Amino acid sequence: MVALSVKMYVVENILGKKHQTMASPAAVNCSGAARRILLLPTTTTRPATRSFPGRLSAVTSRPITTLPSTPRTKSKSTPKTQPSTTPPPQPLQTRRTYHSTTHPPPPSPFTQAETTLLTTALTSHIPTHGFTLPSLTLAARDLSLLDISPSFLGPSPVARLIHFHLYTTRTTLPSLASQHSDLLSGLSVSEKIELLTWLRLKQNEPIIQHWQQALAVMAQPFQVPVAVRELAMLADEIYYLAGDKSVDPSWYTKRAALSGIYAAAELFMTTDKSEGFQETRRFLRRRLQEAEELGGAVRSVGEWVGFTASAGVNVLRSKGVRI
Amino acid sequence: MASPRRLLRTARQLTSTKTPLLTSQFPRHVSTTPSPPSPSPSPPLPPKNLKPLTESQREMLSSFLRVNQAGELAATLIYTAQTPPILACEPHLRPLMKHMYDQEADHLRVFNSLIAKHRVRPTALYPLWSVLATGLGWSTAVMGKEAAMACTEAVETEIGGHYNTQIRELLKMVSEWEAEGYDVGEEFTELISTLRRIRDEELEHLDHAVEHDAQKAEPHWLLTGVIRAGCRGAIWVSERV
C-alpha cells in the first residue's frame, strides 16, 4: 500500500546527540531542517509532478546511534538525489480561493510522506488506539520508520492527525457523492444538502468512539483556527456539491447555518447508540428544517419591507414629488 | 489621472482591431491590445499541459472576480436608482438608460455565474455596496441630468482603468505560462475576452455620458473627484473583503 520511497538521513551533527538521549518518540521536537532530514522524498526531479516510485525504503529498527551519516536505501531502482534538494515548504493552504475547472488542483497541504504515515495511522490504529500519539508511533513502526518520525508532523502530531482526518473526509466527499449519484439525482437542493451532510457524518462511523476525544483536541485554542476553517470549507463543499448557486449575502448565512448544524449533529452522533445512527439523522433533519423555516421567515420579512418601500416611493412619485 | 476623453480615445484605438483571441497570439510584452493574427495557426492539442495555479494566482483571481461582481452590482443599482428621476424630467433618455442598464445587468449575470462556477466568496460588504450605490445613483439623479451623467463618467472612467489593470495582469500570467511551455486553456482565454468586451462596453457608457453633457455639471471637478475617489476606495476594499 505504500507508494512512497523515503530516505532517512540522520546527520549526526544535527540529530545524533538527541537520538542518543531520546527517551520517547515525542521527546524530540524537530526543527524545520531536522524535519526535512528525517523524511526526504527520493524523486525531486520535477517538482510539478512529484511522484514517489518504488517501495518504502526500509529503515530498520536498529539502534539509532549506529545509523551512518550517509544516505541509505534498500530500493536500488530509485534514482539517487542530491541530499541538498529539499522539498518546497508546503503552505497550509486551506483557504477557499479561486477554483479552476480545468487546471490541476493545488497540492495537498500534507506532504506525501505525511500522507502515508497519517493514512496508515488512520486506517490501522485509530479504531483501537484512538487519536493518540501511540497510534502514530505504531503507524511509523508499520512503515519501518523510526519511532521518532511522528514528531516531523509539527508541534502537535495528534492535532495534525485529526486535521488529516477532517481533510481527507472532506476531499473524498465529491467521489462519495458521485457514488451516490442515483440517490442524489432528482432531489431538491435542500434534500441534497441533507443527504450530503449525512454521508459526511457516516464517514465518522469507524472512529466514532474516539471522536469526542478528537473534538476536545480540536477545541484547544491553538487548534481552533484549523478546525473552524475545515468546518467552513466542509459547508462550502456541501453547498457546492448540492449545486447551490447563490452569490449574495445568503452565501454567508447558508454556510454559517450549515456549519453550526453539522457541528451539533457531529456531537450528537458521538453519544448516539441507535441502530445505524438513525437518531442522528432525525436530529439533522429537524435542525435543517428549522434553519429553512427561519430563513424563509427572514426572506418573507425582507420581501415585505422591500415591496412596501418601493410602493411608498411610487405613490410619492405619482403625487408629483420629484424623487 | 487621464482625462476621460483621452482614455476614450485610447480605448477606441485598443478596440479598433477586432481579432479572434488565440493564446498563441498573445504578445510577449504585456499589453491589453490584441495583437494582429500570426500567420501560423496553432492547432488545439487535445491533452492540454496546464500549469497548476499558485496560491497567489488563485488569490488574485478570487479578488478580481469578487471586485468585479461587486462593481457590476453597484453599477446596476446606480442605473436603477438614476432612471426614474432622470426620466421624469428628460423622457427622451429612456432608450439610453435602458441600454446602459441592460448591459450592466448582463455584466452582473456574467460575474455571478463566474463566481458560482469558480467557487469564489462574494464580497461580505454586499449590503453596504447596495445601499451606497443606490444612494449615489439617486442623489446624483435628483441633482439633475448633468450630475447623473458626471457620476456615470466618473464611475466608468475608474472602472475602465480597473478592467485594463486586470487584463494586463492576466495577460502577464498567461504569457508567463507560454514562456514556460505550458498551454493556456479556454478558461483563461475566455475570461480575458469577457473582460475585454465588458471593459469596452463600460467605456462606451463613458462616451455616452460625455455626449450627454456630463462635463456641464457644476461643479464637475468636485463631483467626479469625489466619486472617483469613492470608487477607488470601494475597489480596494472589495478586493480584500
UniProtKB/TrEMBL annotation, chain A:
Recorded name of the encoding gene:
COQ9
Entries under Pfam families matching the protein: COQ9 (PF08511)
Residue ranges of the region described as Disordered: 42-112
Which family, according to UniProt?
Belongs to the COQ9 family.
Q: What is its main location?
A: mitochondrion
Q: What organism is this sequence from?
A: Podospora bellae-mahoneyi
Supply the name of the protein: Ubiquinone biosynthesis protein
Which taxonomic lineage does the organism of this UniProt entry have?
Eukaryota, Fungi, Dikarya, Ascomycota, Pezizomycotina
The leader peptide range reads none
**Compartments where located:** Mitochondrion
Q: Spans of biased composition, class Low complexity? A: 65-84, 92-102
The job of this chain, per UniProt, is described as: Membrane-associated protein that warps the membrane surface to access and bind aromatic isoprenes with high specificity, including ubiquinone (CoQ) isoprene intermediates and presents them directly to Coq7, therefore facilitating the Coq7-mediated hydroxylase step. Participates in the biosynthesis of coenzyme Q, also named ubiquinone, an essential lipid-soluble electron transporter for aerobic cellular respiration.
UniProtKB/TrEMBL annotation, chain B:
Q: Which reaction does it catalyse?
A: a 5-methoxy-2-methyl-3-(all-trans-polyprenyl)benzene-1,4-diol + AH2 + O2 = a 3-demethylubiquinol + A + H2O
On the tree of life, the source organism's domain of life is Eukaryota
Q: Where in the cell is it found?
A: Mitochondrion inner membrane
Q: Which pathway is this protein engaged in?
A: Cofactor biosynthesis; ubiquinone biosynthesis
Regions of compositional bias (Pro residues) in chain numbering: 34-49
Q: How is the cofactor bound?
A: Binds 2 iron ions per subunit.
Q: What class of enzyme is it?
A: oxidoreductase
Polar residues: bias regions:
12-26
Kindly list the positions annotated as binding Fe cation 2.
104, 156, 202, 205
Q: Which UniProt keywords apply?
A: Iron, Membrane, Metal-binding, Mitochondrion, Mitochondrion inner membrane, Monooxygenase, Oxidoreductase, Ubiquinone, Ubiquinone biosynthesis
- Spell out the subunit comment: Component of a multi-subunit COQ enzyme complex, composed of at least COQ3, COQ4, COQ5, COQ6, COQ7 and COQ9.
Q: What is the name listed in the Swiss-Prot or TrEMBL entry for this protein?
A: 5-demethoxyubiquinone hydroxylase, mitochondrial
Gene source species: Podospora bellae-mahoneyi
Q: Which gene encodes it?
A: COQ7
